[in-house]
Amino acid sequence: MLVDSHCHLNMLDLENYGGELSTVIETAKRAGVEYILCVGVDLETAQEVLDIAVRFDNVWASVGLHPSHKTAHEPSEKDYLALAKHPKVVAIGETGLDYYYNKENLEEMRQRFRTQIRAARKANKPLIIHTRDARDDTLQIMQQEQASEVRGVMHCFTESWEMAEKAMALGFYISFSGIVTFGNAKNVVSVAEKVPLDRLLIETDSPYLTPVPFRGKPNGPQYVRYVADRIAELKAMDFSLVASQTTANFFQLFRDAKPL
Is cis: bond before 213, omega within 30 of 0? Predict the structure, then answer.
């Protein structure tokens, strides 16, 4: 059994699945992917994410505002908390800092991150954090805003082992996407080798970052098994152990998600 701990079902090109979202879910199940977390990136499409989670028993949702998203209305803590009351919402995010794609209005981005951490603490839900080229500020804000109270996951991790260690010390899990299968991802591979299996999650981040051997083609939750397979290879472990432990990790972190 596998869990895709981070994907964007509402962004998939359903033409690849005969136009049916149900086919996405069934395709994933045939690949052994029993559970999926559909992650929100803005409040404009939050209802789409929630509707998908309601439609499928094995899908849960998160609500948040991606650091790179442009919006006319900057949500307040109350906005996040209102959405977080939904019974299928298990996390706040994705949130965080991205200095790779953003060079301006960084203080507004940092404030956005702080707001979502505060909302997560009030809602008592874990955080899904996106960080890129913003190691020091991400960790500093996590510490200042006491993100360790609710814990969470550093999703699609591509940063240093030092950052991974510090995030884990705050109670966070480290999640790897299809990037870990890329031939040029030596740093990601090195970190994946070091992260203890009981602190590790796997994801597709689909429709992005399709793993080898399907790189260049559309990504979907069914391909998370290739991430698990690569982790098993790197750690010289049985695939079944990686699958079972990452599934257990998912349910330990996302407490409001209950296995069927």
Answer: yes
Which percentage of the chain shows pLDDT scores above 90?
97
What are the pLDDT digits (tens) for 110-147?
999 999 999 999 999 999 999 999 999 999 999 999 99
Judge whether 170 and 148 are in contact, CB under 8 Å.
yes
Instruction: Find the domain containing 45 and state its range.
Output: 2-253
Is 219 within a domain?
yes
Q: Tell me the one-letter amino acid at 150.
A: V
| CB of 186 closer than 8 Å to CB of 160 | no
What does the pLDDT look like over 193-230, one tens digit per residue?
A: 999 999 999 999 999 999 999 999 999 999 999 999 99
CA separation for the pair 91, 192 (Å, rounded): 24
259 domain-assigned: no
β pairing state of 152-154 and 89-98: unpaired
- CATH number of the CATH domain containing 199: 3.20.20.140
Amino acid identity for residue 183 in this structure: G
Identify the CA nearest to 53 among candidates 106, 90, 82.
90
Domain assignment of residue 258, yes or no: no
**Overall number of domains in the chain:** 1
Measured distance CA(134)–CA(66) in Å, rounded: 14
Nearest CA to 225 among 203, 205, 245, 249?
Answer: 203
CA quadruple 200, 123, 147, 134: dihedral positive or negative? Answer: positive
Q: Note whether residue 260 is domain-resident.
A: no
Strands 200-202, 89-98: pairing is: unpaired
For residue 146, is it left (φ>0), alpha (ψ between -120 and 50) or beta?
A: left
pLDDT band at 94 (very low <50, low <70, confident <90, very high): very high
